[in-house]
Amino acid sequence: MAERTLHGTGATPRSGVGTVVWYGRDISLPDPDDVEVDPETERRRFADAVDTARAELESEREATAERVGEDEAAVFDAHIQFLEDPTIEDAVETMIADGGPAPNAVDAAFGEHIEQFEGMDGRMAERADDLRDVRDRLLRLLTDGERVGLGDLPAGSVVLAERLTPSDTAQLDPERVAGFATVTGGRTSHAAIFARSLALPAVVGIGTDLDTLEDGAEVVVDGDNGTLLVSPDDSERAAAANESGAAVVNDSVKTTDGRHVEVAANIGQPAELKPAAKRGADGVGLYRTEFLFLDRETPPSEDEQYEAIRQALDTFPDGRVVVRTLDIGGDKRIPYLDLPDEENPFLGERGIRRSLAPDSDLFATQLRALLRAAADGAGDLAIMFPLVATIEELDAALDALEAAAGLDDYDADAVDPEVGVMIETPSAAFMADELAARVDFLSIGTNDLTQYVMAADRENERVGDLHDPTHPGVLRAIQQTVTAAHAEDIWVGMCGEMAGDPDLTELLVGLGLDELSMSAVTIPEVKTAVSETSYSSASERGDRAQLAATRSEVHTTLDT
């Protein structure tokens, strides 16, 4: 038995065993009293460091998009924006003009902003880590510090850190790194999302107990149970080393009593399509189209969008591909679209709200591309509208789709893609019966739905306990949506992180979900869980869970 067990939040249902390697940034700043400063020289040093940092970020963004995914890579866009922030740049240059060395000026200027962000609520607090990443990159360049090669660690390394930034995590090589664990972080942090994309065992948010471990200690990272086993025994080491996940199941799956449940993949860019198919995905339950609009100076043409959609349909010729129309705003920034600066962008102009107003021309072009792809025959295309909160929004989106169908030279009557709505807001859950009467399916986005139902930002660790989709309020919103969909004889799916948790598969099957869509890494585990579940028993458990009054009662129901 292990010497002791540290508890945190599991990020990936994988286990690994290896040797601790601590990762940190010990950057020594010069003593201003011991340095003779030439302001012009320091300004040039700072400018050169900014140019080099920008080149590094652009290169890392491209590599991350190819290796991990476009959604994950988009965080580097925010880092470039911070690097070029005129407020920070002016502060650095002012301190240099006053006689400060460039490294000290960078440290002080970024430090002020980091402190400001740490004092904010919601997703803005997450920006403190992004600022640290940019600051430390500049300091490394200005002090000629060596960056730890996380991509060149010894085989079997388990990386421990206070926190891991996106640029840190993107370096990790799953072939060499057995896993990682951090003091801070939650299941929806950048590090956790990267871990799932890389199928890398990870436990985040362990707290200061992690600091008691030394380099060279042997540990087991159990990303399923959210534990770190210190000095594991032979059986624990063997279990972790031999764990390879569930076997890939290429056929569709049913419960033990014959109820079919579709298990699909969430896709953020074309490079993820074939890996998802190899993991046994029945189709695509969420095809994010934002990758087409990012990292460029002008919007994609109709033909570009058509080709990308056709690629997805060709990859799953016997499955369904659910394409979400453009969902920007919130944390998704596209420079050429003149997005507003909003105090709380997640409650602002995003998703369908932009498609029906400032981005209506882009919306029409995208709808034409979708209809063209659907008209070509191969594959089963479905169109899904994001962040719908009112019936009026849905009716307007359906009118736009009808108008787009009338503008092309193909036989519009022969093109009949399924049309659906994402249930991400409490309003949509409350109005699910009216929405269901107008569409062919509903798909529950539990990341945003949980955030809005619980009034708890999914990136804010201080309210992390509230951002849990097993809270009764969220379960009742899910159940209400399922009931409304089935009353109209349409299917209902789920494409949030909850869908990819094998421990919750029985609950979701019991609540009546017809489709579960997730990161490809957990598809085999979820398929196995579906095939081992009795729908009749799961339904009884689902009924009890959604009627519970507290999260504790829900978990008691799930554990019995």
Automatic annotation (TrEMBL):
NCBIfam families: PTS_I_fam. It catalyses: L-histidyl-[protein] + phosphoenolpyruvate = N(pros)-phospho-L-histidyl-[protein] + pyruvate. Residues 154-226 form the PEP-utilising enzyme mobile domain. It is found in: Cytoplasm. Pfam families: PEP-utilisers_N, PEP-utilizers, PEP-utilizers_C. Its EC number is 2.7.3.9. GO terms for molecular function: kinase activity; metal ion binding; phosphoenolpyruvate-protein phosphotransferase activity. Mg(2+) binds at E424, D448. Phosphoenolpyruvate binds at R288, R324, N447, D448, R458. General (non sugar-specific) component of the phosphoenolpyruvate-dependent sugar phosphotransferase system (sugar PTS). This major carbohydrate active-transport system catalyzes the phosphorylation of incoming sugar substrates concomitantly with their translocation across the cell membrane. Enzyme I transfers the phosphoryl group from phosphoenolpyruvate (PEP) to the phosphoryl carrier protein (HPr). Belongs to the PEP-utilizing enzyme family. Residues 534-560 are annotated as: Disordered. Its cofactor is Mg(2+). The active site is at H190 (tele-phosphohistidine intermediate), C495 (proton donor). Residues 247-533 form the PEP-utilising enzyme C-terminal domain. GO terms for biological process: phosphoenolpyruvate-dependent sugar phosphotransferase system. This is Phosphoenolpyruvate-protein phosphotransferase. One of its GO terms (cellular component) is cytoplasm. InterPro entries: PEP-util_enz_mobile_dom, PEP-utilizing_PTS_enzyme, PEP_util_C, PEP_util_CS, Phosphohistidine_dom_sf, PTS_EI, PTS_EI-like, PTS_EIN. Residues 7-127 form the Phosphotransferase system enzyme I N-terminal domain. Keywords: Cytoplasm, Kinase, Magnesium, Metal-binding, Phosphotransferase system, Plasmid, Pyruvate, Sugar transport, Transferase, Transport.
